[in-house]
From TrEMBL:
Keywords from the UniProt entry: Actin-binding, Cytoplasm, Disulfide bond, Immunoglobulin domain, Phosphoprotein, Repeat
Keyword Disulfide bond tagged: yes
Family: Belongs to the myotilin/palladin family.
Primary location class: cytoplasm
GO annotation, cellular component aspect: axon; plasma membrane; Z disc
Localization of this protein: Cytoplasm, Myofibril, Sarcomere, Z line
PANTHER family in alphabetical order: BASIGIN RELATED (PTHR10075), PALLADIN (PTHR10075:SF30)
Domain Ig-like residues, every copy: 10-101, 115-205
Protein name: PALLD protein
Gene3D superfamilies the record matches: Immunoglobulins
Gene source species: Himantopus himantopus (Black-winged stilt)
CDD domains found in the cross-reference section: IgI_Myotilin_C
Length: 264
């Protein structure tokens, strides 16, 4: 029997398994087919591809390549949701054919959004020995990493007194239990992901027990007085500077009214 008439059904020396590729990325499927015996005159097997039983035709996003070492490649770029399904590679020659199949899963395209502050840190004051929270809210995709700093020193781990917290809604918190004078200073929170980085800084003031925060100082009470000048001076107004030196208004030299203060 002439050797040219002896044919052998092809088989695959190399074949890929199931694949998961992110939408918009490149997908490459490599395989290699041959005949069982390397006999002169045997035809090289032909390869074709199908998706869910339908032939795949080369186009701008689907390419079929053959390398010198006999490896066949199906290249899809960019991958879309329509490319998901069961792929079948068919190797055939005059003696028959052989196939393998795999599933391509197309993962949804990852959305990248740079972090932004929905609520920024606010300057805060606290009485020494009391707890205090430095809070803000951040959004971003994917969820950003959070970094805290006090002045130029990074806060990298939690302690029993100072702890960092974060929830799934973007709320960020630095909690200080029993604030001390050493806790006062500038605090910076930074958020970073693949799309960018943002930072926000605020001041923490710690008051001693006998101190009162500036914003809580009560105004002094002024008793009614016949001297309008005295009342205005008590409010911090320099009335004399508003008059010319030679004016010397006599009617403004009456005794000033009495002042009472909550501090007395």
């Amino acid at each position: 029997e002439p050797i040219q008439e002896r044919f052998f059904r092809p088989h695959f020396l190399q074949a890929p398994g199931d694949l998961t590729v992110q939408e918009g990325k490149l997908c490459r499927m490599d395989c290699k087919a041959s005949t069982p015996l390397r006999v002169s005159g045997l035809p090289t097997p032909d390869l074709s591809w199908q998706l869910n039983g339908r032939p795949i035709r080369p186009d701008s996003s689907h390419k079929m390549l053959v390398r010198e070492n006999g490896v066949h490649s199906l290249i899809i770029e960019p991958v879309t949701a329509r490319d998901a399904g069961i792929y079948t590679c068919i190797a055939s020659n005059r003696a028959g054919e052989n196939t393998f199949s795999l599933e391509l899963i197309v993962a949804a395209k990852e959305v990248h959004k740079a972090p932004v502050f929905i609520e920024k840190l606010q300057n805060t004051g606290v009485t020494e020995g009391f707890p205090v929270r430095l809070e803000c809210r951040i959004s971003g995709e994917p969820s950003p990493q959070i970094f805290w700093k006090k002045e130029n020193e990074s806060l990298t781990y939690n302690t029993d007194r100072v702890s960092m917290h974060q929830d799934n809604y973007g709320y960020i918190c630095l909690l200080i239990q029993g604030a001390t004078k050493e806790d006062a200073g500038w605090y910076t929170v930074s958020a970073k992901n693949e799309a960018g980085i943002v930072s926000c800084t605020a001041r923490l003031d710690v008051y001693t027990q006998w101190q009162q925060p500036p914003q809580t100082t009560k105004p002094k009470k002024v008793r009614p007085s016949a001297s309008r000048y005295a009342a205005l001076c008590d409010q911090g107004l320099d009335i004399k500077a508003a008059f010319q030196p030679e004016a010397n208004p006599v009617h403004l030299t009456m005794p000033s009214g009495l002042v009472e203060s909550d501090d007395l």
